[in-house]
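User: I'll paste a sequence; please echo it back and then give the predicted structure.

Assistant: Echoing your sequence first, then the prediction.
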Amino acid sequence: MQSDTAQTLLSAWKDQPAVDHHCHPLRRWPFELTALDLRSAFTEALDPEMAERHVIHSSGYQAALHRIAVVLGCEPTESAVLERRNAVDPQRYARQLLESAPTEVMLVDHGFSSPESFTLQEQQRATGIAQREIIRLETLAETLVKSAKDPREWFVATRAALRGGIEGGAVGVKSICAYRASLELQPVDTDTLGVAFSALRLRVERGQSVRLVGDSLCHALLFEAAQECQELDVPLQVHCGFGDPDEDLATTSPLGLRPLFIDPAYHGLRIALLHCYPYHREAAYLCAVFPGAYMDLSLTIPFAGLEGFRAMRETLGLCPTSKLLYASDASRYPEVYFVAASLHRESLAGALGELVDRGLLSSDSAVAAGRQVLAENARRVYRLADRSGSLA
């Protein structure tokens, strides 16, 4: 149950639109939502048995059902939610969910999408929310392997493509290095890099699929992208911690990114650490000691139940409120954006409200801190005022 102070903070932020600095495309409506669809949206598991048998018993999913049921005016059971949800007008319902915890702009990583996904232009029209693109680094780089004879040509082509994307309206770059390698960044060995790239080229020549994996390729690419982002004055998002089973969670601590924070060659680079859990305390430490470090708790808040609320409190113990960003990491279904947005506001109000109740923060400072986290920090970090404009 929220304290009176937390409720006061939520009321103060009620009309404060957020900047969702990391999310994915919605699925084009209309469509009928199934139980497995909804369950799959609240887990990072890839094995269908998890959605079939176990997700419904998670605290995060049960909390989501209760919130969605309130909007739909039905019992908080999966069957009741799905029956009512599939009977309503999808456009009106989606807007109702998105407006209940308002968002002014979504920064969208289209690397996680399908033919059923909205384009940015379609999503802007459907939701009434401004959309901006985040370029997924590894997905882009994979398309350029066939045009390069060696790693240097590949890096040049990738950096040129990043430059073109930013000049075309994108506002940042995202790396999924944690899914393809480790985040324990090491100096690049040119011989090892050359061998790895030759193997990648051979797959292209044989007509096989190209998937960028391994420390030598992924780390070298990340260093190049960091330099380009620094020159372009755009943030580099890096997936850390919590994610699907493709990654080795033990090697995804943001502490492995230390070379990017201490090398003078990257001075001025802004790095947004995504998700972070269970390494949110390590991420908060980086944000407390390095000017270019920022973080969010996306995925953590909506998926981890009470752990998500605890993570917010622990994060704010060390991370300056000027360094914490809001993100949903939502995709496909408007319910996910809604649940993430409402839970983020509540966890933020709970953590800041506790500081107020303990006499460690004034009420006015807590209100201001919440506005920072919800929108002001992202506007500043992504230079959104300088990169304004409408999608065609």
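Residues 176 and 287 are 20 Å apart (CA to CA). The first strand starts at residue 18 and ends at 23.
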